[in-house]
Design brief:
elongated; 9% strand; alpha/beta; 315 residues
Length: 315
């Protein structure tokens, strides 16, 4: 008698509905690569509950494969062993996806004690510490759009603590901006940092800030990198207006010096002090040596001068 497979009820919709074109192509070339871990006693009559290898199972369905090889978990398996087997049976998924980790731990929480929960973390490449367990379980509170972005590696894991401070609608909007402008790395982190700061400090939503940006700045059109940079500059000015004013004053001072191309002048990060750095580019080593004594003399005079003035260094 044929037995039907069904997925766990607590899976997020995006995980079930995601297109799996690469996995389907692999199945077309090599067939089913690994048995699906299932349980009979956790499902209904004539049903087997899929416990692990969920992505492979979904890809098999999308590929039109309706007869699959399964490995049935014995009914007498202890809960801690069952969860450990699920992780080991699909270790790559449980090591790579914070979201899949979170849903497994949420399910395990109802059946295991705290020490047993902690013992599962190393199997997923995590440290067996309380704060790690707490952080993973919090992911369930995120809007599904954020969970999907995390699962698909669109959103940096470092953004999670900030996004947890926002309502779902605001989380959705920020994920939309990150996706729309294809932001990653420091630009993504800066965008999230500033949007969260302005929401918590002023109550300004992302949609309100976007409207004000488009009204006040008239950003470039049909060029996503330039649009993104314009938005980041606008948010920086809203978050730190004093830095923007300091940058403008600094640029005016540098412009008045009319320095040649081979000389550049920079300020300290975030204008943390009044220091400036002068960079002088020489064509070659002999050219530098020819002026070295003069440069040393300038530095010596600068160090010996008294008073309250800007400090300088020469490179």
């Amino acid at each position: 008698m044929a037995e039907h497979l069904r997925l766990p009820d607590n899976l997020p919709k995006f995980l079930v509905q995601q297109p799996l074109s690469e996995e389907v192509q692999l199945i077309g070339r090599f067939g089913q690569i690994q048995p699906i871990l299932v349980s009979r006693h956790l499902a209904g009559k004539s049903e087997l509950l899929v416990l692990s290898n969920i992505t492979q199972y979904l890809a098999l369905c999308q590929a039109g494969v309706f007869q699959v090889a399964c490995r049935i978990l014995p009914a007498q398996t202890a809960p801690i062993n069952a969860f450990a087997l699920r992780i080991m049976h699909d270790r790559q998924a449980y090591s790579n996806s914070l979201v899949i980790q979170a849903y497994l731990l949420k399910e395990a929480e109802a059946l295991l004690d705290q020490q047993e929960l902690l013992s599962l973390l190393p199997l997923m490449g995590l440290k067996p510490q309380q704060h790690v367990l707490k952080e993973r379980k919090k992911l369930i509170q995120l809007d599904s759009s954020v969970q999907q972005a995390l699962h698909n590696k669109v959103l940096n894991n470092k953004c999670v603590p900030l996004l947890l401070r926002l309502p779902p609608a605001e989380q959705q909007q920020i994920v939309h901006l990150v996706t729309h402008y294809r932001l990653g790395g420091s630009k993504q982190q800066n965008l999230v940092d500033m949007l969260v700061e302005l929401y918590l400090r002023e109550g300004s939503t992302s949609k309100t800030l976007l409207t004000q940006w488009q009204r006040d700045v008239e950003p470039p059109r049909n060029n996503l990198p330039q649009e993104a940079q314009s938005l980041l500059s606008y948010l920086l000015a809203r978050c730190n207006p004093h830095l923007v004013r300091a940058e403008e004053r600094f640029c005016e001072q540098v412009q008045r010096l009319q320095a040649p191309e081979q000389i550049s002048i920079t300020h300290t990060p975030a204008f943390e002090d009044e220091g400036v750095t002068v960079h002088i580019n020489y064509a070659n080593w002999p050219a530098l040596q020819a002026h070295w004594q003069q440069l040393l003399q300038l530095v010596t005079e600068d160090q010996g001068a008294a008073g309250n003035r800007e400090s300088g260094s020469v490179k």
